[in-house]
Design brief:
It is a single chain. This protein has ten helices and ten strands. The chain has 276 residues and is α/β, with parallel strands linked by helices. It has two domains: 158 residues, 3-Layer(aba) Sandwich (Rossmann fold), CATH 3.40.50.300; 78 residues, no CATH class. The strands form two sheets. The chain has a six-stranded mixed β-sheet, with helices on both faces. Strands 2-1-4-5 form a four-stranded antiparallel β-sheet, covered by helices on one side. It is globular and about 55 Å long. The protein binds adenosine-5'-triphosphate. The site of adenosine-5'-triphosphate has 10 residues, from helix 1. It is found in: Cell membrane.
């Protein structure tokens, strides 16, 4: 089966003055329909850069080589306009900083409606119904009021949820989510991750879920790729990463998680004793 997304020996180099710095050094992976690939790695390891390069989101200072294929078509050969059409249509992209994805001058409702209208032939009533539905799915209270707000009137977490809502409502073939739950509290995060799982199962959406949060990744990802300094250093399912990861940073994340789980069990045991 043709993967939905495939990166083959992807390199990204930043050229500044006469200096060239290679930031992504030959990354390869593939994601199939209904599969979620988690990309784990510390800050600066090249997680965002790899996906931005594939989706044409880097400016002219960066040169990209290798191959990135979407449903068998080469992405690196597509024009800026073709890639723009793909994003928000067949490919949903949820970026790290939600503020940059909204226009400060327009109300949230108008921005959701614009995205819906650009990619569907829904009438005004259908757009309003779907806009309210997406806010409700993202656990946003008073959705009618929220549609009337400007971006600066909402919290970062709310904007992040709205962005996830828009991307998932478009039922894309591929959803790329870069640290999508960083600004969201733990309980809402749990519900949002369920929404990712639902979309993956119901629509057979392929997903790339970028995070440095091993717990979040372990809930949604079927397979995990670990990046370190622009290279893939570990790859496998969650159990493999938990027990056999070689990379020191991955080990550190795994140990930190084990430590949290140990303390959680101790607290539970303490509670049980005090109830006895
Ligand atoms: N606009 C830029 N100009 C110059 N270097 C950049 C730029 N953006 C990123 N880099 C560098 O590219 C490397 C990879 O960055 P990238 O954003 O992919 O990291 P990341 O793994 O996604 O981490 P984070 O989670 O912190 O975003 C880092 O060394 C970073 O400093």
């Amino acid at each position: 089966m043709t993967p939905v997304l495939e990166l083959k020996d992807l390199h990204v180099t930043l050229r500044q003055h006469r200096h060239a710095t290679e930031l992504v050094k030959g990354v390869s992976f593939a994601v199939g329909p209904g599969e979620c690939l988690g990309i784990l790695g510390e800050s600066g390891s090249g997680k965002s850069m790899s996906m931005k390069a594939a989706m044409g989101l880097l400016d002219k200072g960066f040169s990209v080589s290798g191959a990135a294929m979407f449903q068998g078509e080469p992405l690196l050969e597509k024009s800026g306009e073709e890639l723009r059409r793909l994003r928000g249509g067949k490919v949903g992209v949820v970026l790290q900083n939600p503020m940059t994805c909204f226009d400060p001058l327009y109300r949230i409702g108008a921005q959701i409606a614009e995205t819906f209208a650009a990619h569907n032939n829904w009438d005004g009533e259908e757009i309003l119904r779907r806009s309210l539905e997406l806010l409700e799915k993202m656990r946003i209270r008073n959705p009618e009021e929220v549609l009337e707000k400007y971006p600066h009137q909402l919290s970062g977490g709310m904007l992040q949820r709205i962005m996830i809502g828009i991307a998932t409502a478009m039922e894309p073939s591929l959803l790329i989510a870069d640290e999508p739950t960083t600004a969201i509290d733990a309980i809402t995060q749990y519900e949002i991750l369920n929404e990712f799982l639902r979309v993956k199962q119901e629509n057979q959406t392929a997903m790339v879920f970028i995070s440095h949060d091993l717990n979040a990744i372990s809930r949604v990802a079927d397979r995990i790729v670990v990046l370190n300094q622009g290279r893939v250093v570990d790859e496998g399912d969650f159990q493999h990463i938990l027990h056999h990861a070689q990379d020191p940073y991955t080990r550190l994340l795994v140990e930190k998680r084990a430590d949290v789980m140990r303390r959680y069990r101790q607290v539970l045991a303490g509670k049980e004793r005090s109830y006895a």
